[in-house]
Batch of 4 targets.
Target 1
Amino acid sequence: MLKPLGTWLVRQLVRAVVVLWLVVTAIFIGVRAIPGDPAEAIMGGPGSQASAEALDMARAEYGLDRPLVEQYLIFLGNLLRGDLGVSYSYQDPVTEIIGDVFPQTLLLAVVSLLTAWLLALVLSLISVGRGRASRWMTSLLEIIAAAVPHFWLGAVLITVFSTNLGLLPSIDNGRASGLILPALTLAIPMSGFMAQLMRDSLTQAMSSPFVLAARARGASTVQVFFAHGLRHSILPVLNMSGWSFSSLLSGAVVVEEVFARPGIGRALLQGVLSRDIPLVTGIAVLCAVCYIVVMALAEATEQLINPAGVDQHPDQDSPDGPLSATVAEETIAPSVVPEPGVRRS
């Protein structure tokens, strides 16, 4: 049974507020712990040779001369109004900069996540129910895929599919073809993690009593797989969707630089190199919001797939829960009829 909508929304809202507050507080402390004077970054960096008077004016304009607690409260107040400040390096509002580049990164992350799901499902299907050699090979592929660094994989894909074969562009061309290699670079390592979880869950689900009960009722292997096994095997992967999406956003920093794609990854790298505190802060807050939203969507999807509760063992899930297990036991266990005159113990 689905949890009451009001209770779920309140819980998600409280969790979002707490997580976001912790994140923005950590960001505020972290960026101010970076060595150096932010006023120098505002004036163009140490090489700008700005005078002491100019540095004082920059500190006064951006509130850097105020006490740290007052700066923190002003920072929180600006966030509540949706004001992320003005970028030091671009001299444009941070919200405008993020609005220009975030759709590109979001598209890349979503396509990469769907591709990783597809690759993980294929690897799981190859290994489940097969021989030991097949399971060993797919397990080795999963480990290798999960361990491959993005920058090396991107370079290999560019060399093979762009330089040698000439099939796909090596840099962004504004078309769908320019998205294939970056998406694969992000998806392949992620699919290694997902496939390990999905394979173990699928193996356990396919040997559970509710699957045996479904087969006893005459369901085909395909019906059992898609109606029962797959439904339970994707729940652990959904649990890690928030982490997966956040990992894809962080991986975009490397991938967008390798493939010369516009996005928040390249903007974040530029902000870090130029000590652009407002830009770095704005992108970090955006990533935190994305994590919260994805986690909420993942939990809602879990509730739709498994209304009985995601913390419940699959054998107890309804309608394929205790009743199905009982049916399986009654179907599989041989009936013992005592002979006349023999008393059963």
Target 2
Amino acid sequence: MDISKIRNSFQLKFGLHFISRTIVKEYCRKMSNYMNYSEASKLYDEARVAADAENIYNIFTGLLKKPANKIDLLDIGCGTGNYSYSFMKNGLQSITIADASQEMLNCAKIKMKVFEDKVTAQDIILPNLPFPEKSFDVISCMQVLHHIDSAALKESTKEHLQREDYPNMLETLGQAYNVLKPGGVLVIDVMFEENCESFWWTRLCPIAAKAFKRLRMSQKDMIQSLEKLNFENIVCTYFPGSRLVKKEIYDEIQCIDDPKWRYYLSQYKLVEKSGELDNLIKIVKDAETSGKLKEYFDDWSEKLWTHGNHSAVFAMKPLA
């Protein structure tokens, strides 16, 4: 692939003056640098949920102003199909599910069999969206974008990241704009800084927390990137108290020393890699011994109650 052409396309779309060759080469990489989703697919549905799927569905259909049976939806980075299933059960006309992990996509196919010929499955590697222009009424991208620049960000030494440091993310947003129908809605489920800080462990593991936040574009940069692509009617919403895994699993933090429990959320890989896991386990076990673990958990999770684990961004492609 011609790296200079990719760099030039970013400069034309976003007015960027410099993008390193190392970062742009990640255009060709698969979606995740810190989690093996081929392995994760075996346990994924034991814990993960389609958090706030019905609220998200109600917002994008409200913006779209179309009946469900007239909506064609593309779910990129669909994983095992939890959100795909949740959206489709409302009676959408069709859904295309797409993921870079064949194992995750196979799980999604099984889950979506109930919808028969209304479902198309495709193996893709973001930021490439190999679909005709103006194909979909809705494109959903649920907890995906933080993966696709992870390799380059791991090598970056910049202290303060800006939107040009997320070229794959920017290219994905641009391609999503192209394959949306006029008046269509892009739905992006993400974590902004407050969402990252809603996870109980981030106050206790500053090195891992910093790496965790670096994978995510800021809310300001996300909105400005969408505006630069000509999206309009941009809406951001938090989901206070919302967890990305089942509450009964998420809240059992006394299981932090159990590798299987940690595997339910990929972010614990960052804690393991940062060298902070042993101290985190000690803090939790000491709190449990003192009988104050629930009290400490509530304190450590302050932003869970106000912002939740995730946010959703909705952006519309103009009608003309």
Target 3
Amino acid sequence: MNSALPTIVREELLRLSFLSTGFTTPNPPVACVITDTSNSKILALGRTQIAGGNHAEREAYLEFRSKFPKLPPHNVFVTLEPCTHFGKTPPCLDLILKEKPETVYIGWEDPNPLLKGRNGNLELENAGIRVVFHQELAKIASKFIFGFRNRILTRKPAILLKAAVTKEGFYTSGTGLREKISSTDSDFFLSYLRAKVDAILVGSGTVQFDHPGLDFKLPSARPLSDLHGPKKTGANLGAEGFSGLISEILDQGASESCMKVHLEKLSEYQPLRIFLLPEESRVSSSFLEKQEKLNLQYGRSLARFFIRGSGSTSYLDRLHKIAEGNVFSYSQKLDHKNIMNQLENWGVNLALVEGGNSLYRLFSEALENEDRILRIQSNQVSFLEGIKPDWGKDHMLEYRVELGTDCWEVFQKCSQD
């Protein structure tokens, strides 16, 4: 049994992990803290940078070296096993072997098969460096790195189905009108959810009636001081996976420092925007113009289109230009596996499915271990008639939080064993 993580170390690892999530894809959002050998004083911090940049350990040691040209005795806490292979950066293992901490505390083993060429933990121990796999560190890793691990082990991202529903459980009235269901407070934290996932998918009906952008932007309708923190009622404080990530969004999202980082790096936190388009006649020019403007705003193309059938030459040319060629045709029967293969090819670790029912049905039938459903139910908004999310019935409540007038609930698929 490991001793408890010092509070200051745990809080920094959670904060750094949260800031890295949605920023580092396809790499895992790793956090690193360097302390003195009593683990009572933090000496340096690091988190994984955007793909191609430094891993968390290198960031931490850069800060450490800038403070102490001659390094004092120290320990390292890292949420994922240090890498042992050359990628766009040298192995973090070699850096740690060079700097010789007394102890390296590790959260999760790295599932990447590229690590199998070296036994990093044995090399550390042979160099006189103590290696400890820590249970609390593993809990932190489980809130943020689960999508990366799922993609490496199964070649699929972790999927979250999400819907805001009325008191009666309707996500739409079915009239084709844009309808507001979730509260302003919920909208604030849901914006962070867009920043924390790597891709967002919506179906043809959403495209036709809502003309969605799907980009991440923090709402400015309410100042930070007016936001009310969530009231947890029976929530699992040890939540992992999507439940753990959502709990951290609610815990950390309203802090001024967190908002500042996300606003400064707004472009880097943008998810892929994936649209299953209806027939050409049902795709408005205003929707396409919105996607073109987002490309200009963020300086890159993040739109991806799946189109039903074909279309006019000018229409297809415009789609290809917006998505830089990432346009894929499908027949009347959409293949879930084709979408998942593309998500894996794009390095997506976490994907959010925002609806509607064509996508809910498609993905709910294939939910697996790390996949979840997020239902945000309003206690105020009511429709006389409507349509409920069609994501099946065999689900078990995993996490529940009351946030003002809304209730956030996370469900997992019941095991068939």
Target 4
Amino acid sequence: MDRPDPAPDQARDRGRGARALVAHESMFGNTRLVADAVAHGLERAGVSTDVVDVAEAGAVGPTVPDYDVLVVGAPTHAFSPSRASSRAQAIEQGAPLDHEERGMREWLAEVPEPPPGAHHAATFDTRVTTVRHLPGSAAVKAARILRRHHYLVEDAPRSFYVEDLQGPLVAGEVDRAEEWGAELGAAQVARGRSPRA
């Protein structure tokens, strides 16, 4: 399907504020708490924000390029985003049954490339604090995937820490996530919307 002529499209873009999507995978609820905090920070900065759980996001993928900012977050399993096998292990330890089939890795594989123009993205993960100095993370891998999809990932991937596999988050991490979201939102508001071809 052909895109509308540039002029009407750009006029429509100028008529609304920036929009962000925060997509997350959360096995025990910790990554969801971080995602909600990031979204709150984005909203504080004036960016209209939606939050979605990728385990329930079957129809969201095709609409992702409609957002100006995409933020994705997932728990780090074995130094990368989860796989079906690691999610099965998490379920054995008490995670919800409906999270086994679909995680961030699968969701990102379905995210379409954005149309021409500036589409920004940022990534975060949650990790057990005892492995904070080990290499590899879900956020770093997600950033690489998004760059392959032609998103602009300018902010360094962020990690937020949990005390143990099931949590809770380390004290202060929710506040830190909200401040990061506010920084992302302020950056988007400052650069404004880039005209799309």
